[in-house]
Write a structure and sequence with these properties.
Elements (H helix, E strand, L loop, with lengths): L1 E2 L5 H14 L6 H10 L21 E7 L6 E7 L8 E3 L3 E7 L1 E8 L8 E9 L3 E4 L2 E9 L6 E7 L6 H4 L1 E3 L1
Antiparallel strand pairs: 1-2, 2-3, 3-10, 4-9, 4-11, 5-8, 5-10, 6-7, 6-9
Helix pairs in contact: 1-2
Length: 172
């Protein structure tokens, strides 16, 4: 495993659990990775030695770990109030957990013959909550910090970090 963030024993333990879940190609991998993340989300010291500043313009990703074989990468996303992702689907599997704050996850469908996704539901996710999904361009969602405080989420994507721009999100 290749690590980029400073390693506390708490962060190291979470990354080891993620690694064991992420390298198994068996069906259900995104759910297993989400469960591996979830076990660590109530630990206030998880990111104690990791610098995760926010960005005033957009949410920002901080690389925590990149698998040496390029199978996955782990990032912390920092969200200021009002920041949100674009509406998107994933070209690769993804798992996430909320470490601090609250995020809203909105889900969309694509009406036949239309080019604009339509929101069908939203789920509020607080500290300790997780979500995951396969590589599937029909599973469309958006994450948003609709609260008044900063939020930090941990995400694992089934792609090497240097390929996030092309291999992770399909934007609508």
């Amino acid at each position: 495993m290749t690590f980029f963030a400073p390693m506390t024993s708490d962060l190291s333990a979470m990354l080891a659990d993620i690694h064991h879940a992420a390298v198994d190609d068996a069906p259900g991998r995104p759910g297993r990775v989400a469960a591996a993340i979830q076990c660590h989300l109530h630990n206030p010291g998880l990111l104690a030695d990791v610098s995760c500043p926010s960005c005033p313009q957009n949410y920002i990703r901080h690389l925590l770990h990149a698998d040496a074989e390029g199978r996955y990468a782990v990032v912390a996303l920092v969200w200021q109030p009002g920041q949100m992702s674009a509406v998107h689907a994933h070209r690769t599997w993804c798992s996430l957990g909320i470490w601090r704050g609250v995020l809203s996850e909105a889900f969309y469908d694509m009406p036949e013959g239309d080019t604009t996704p339509r929101q069908t539901k939203a789920v509020v996710r607080g500290q300790g909550d997780t979500s995951s999904g396969p590589a599937d361009l029909t599973v469309i969602h958006r994450l948003a910090n609709l609260s008044t405080t900063e939020a930090i989420s941990i995400h694992v994507y089934g792609a090497s970090f240097d390929r996030f721009g092309s291999d992770v999100n399909h934007l609508f």
